[in-house]
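INTERNAL AUDIT FORM
Audit reference: QA-55
Scope: verify that the stored structure record matches its stored sequence.
Auditor: D.O.
Record contents follow.
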Amino acid sequence: MIVRIMGEGQVRLDNGHLTELNKLDDELLAEIESGDQPGFRRTLGALLEEVRRLGAPLPDDALEPSELILPSPDATLEEVRAMLSDEGLIPG
């Protein structure tokens, strides 16, 4: 799966990692719904860090279609809320 982190680039991520990423995604969703700004900031950072850690960066000149788009690390709670689907940021 190709994942884009807005403002950073793309990484190739094995679909097998989605289960562990969904735990952080569920936590992020709960923090957005409750308006927990400090929790949101912490969990968004942790989610993006896991994607970076587990994924393999694509070259900067690669333009592959992204199957998943994640917000930038400095995105606001409101910006991330606008990106959410019923399943959060990560499907599954």
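Auditor finding: record pair retrieved intact. Residues 1 and 16 are 10 Å apart (CA to CA).
Action required: none
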